[in-house]
Specification:
Structural class: mainly alpha
Mean pLDDT: 91
Helix content: over 70%
Number of domains: 1
CATH topology: MetI-like fold
Radius of gyration: 22 Å
Number of helices: 10
Strand content: under 5%
Oligomer: single chain
Shape: elongated
Number of strands: 0
């Protein structure tokens, strides 16, 4: 049996991974569907039909401006994935480079990278978004950059800790004795052996990015009208909580399911990719 078939055989028996993958696939399918089709244009305003009940025309009803809720949820999934993917990539690329550099060079380089990470941790995504909004104005890009900056020290610390363990292995010591430099060892031995840890961390940070994007949009610092966002849907629903509570329930459930799916899939991947936890039957 090949390694790939063995992985999928174990994955099918991991309930956390199966449920998480199913929810994440549903989340991705909604975003992909919105690229080609939505029941109605998500930004179209129809005041005469505002707060309409669910019907054949509007599956989940309409909001206080007559916009179709189902269409907004579909496009909101696309917005969340866009923010999550780009923000995680920013953190992954910059964080892995810094963490690998700190682990390979040690000494003052490692100390400088770790202190820079500590400094960056003092500026969470919300605070970074406030500062960027004051300079460049609120918007989707502001939210992406703020969340991406927050992800950098997370990946830097994870990479450094995992890489330090690999640098102590016998095969790395043998490579150094053979004359391989820090850069070559990092590319050939360190990064391939910590890839599984980084994949799991990226999944977790993706879920965190979705929550952060929703929070920033709720506060008016993230995605701006007319682009739909689950966080802004929650913000707009708060004035209609007693008249139309479903306006808050729908985006709230969407955020909860997306984050739950990614976290469950991350837990499942951790069990499947960690040789100490993976059990072959």
């Amino acid at each position: 049996m090949s390694a790939g078939s063995g992985f999928w055989s174990r994955a099918r028996r991991n309930p956390s991974f199966v449920l998480g993958a199913a929810l994440s696939a549903l989340f991705a399918a909604a975003a992909l569907l919105s690229l080609a089709w939505t029941p109605w244009p998500a930004a179209d305003i129809d005041i005469p039909n505002k707060l309409a009940a669910p019907s054949a025309a509007h599956w989940l009803g309409t909001d206080s401006l007559g916009r179709d809720i189902a269409s907004q949820l579909l496009v909101g999934a696309r917005t969340s994935i866009l923010v999550g993917v780009v923000a995680v990539l920013i953190g992954l690329v910059a964080g892995v480079l810094l963490g690998a550099l700190a682990s390979a060079r040690r000494g003052w380089v490692e100390e400088a990278v770790m202190r820079l990470s500590d400094f960056t941790f003092a500026f969470p995504a919300l605070l970074s978004a406030i500062m960027l909004s004051a300079i460049y104005g609120p918007g989707l890009m502001t939210g992406i950059v703020a969340i991406g900056i927050f992800n950098i020290p997370v990946f830097a610390r994870t990479t450094r800790a995992a890489a330090n363990a690999v640098w102590a292995r016998e095969y790395v010591l043998a490579a150094r004795a053979a004359g391989a430099g820090p850069g070559r060892i990092t590319l050939d031995h360190v990064l391939p052996n910590i890839a599984s840890i980084l994949i799991v961390q990226a999944t977790v940070q993706f879920a965190t990015a979705i929550i952060a994007e929703a929070a920033l949009s709720y506060l008016g610092l993230g995605t701006q009208p007319p682009m739909p966002s689950w966080g802004r849907m929650l913000n707009e629903a708060q004035t209609q909580m007693f008249q139309a509570p479903q306006l808050a329930i729908y985006p709230g459930v969407a955020i909860a399911l997306a984050v739950l799916g990614l976290n469950l899939m991350g837990d499942g991947l951790r069990d499947l990719l960690d040789p100490k936890l993976a059990r072959r039957r």
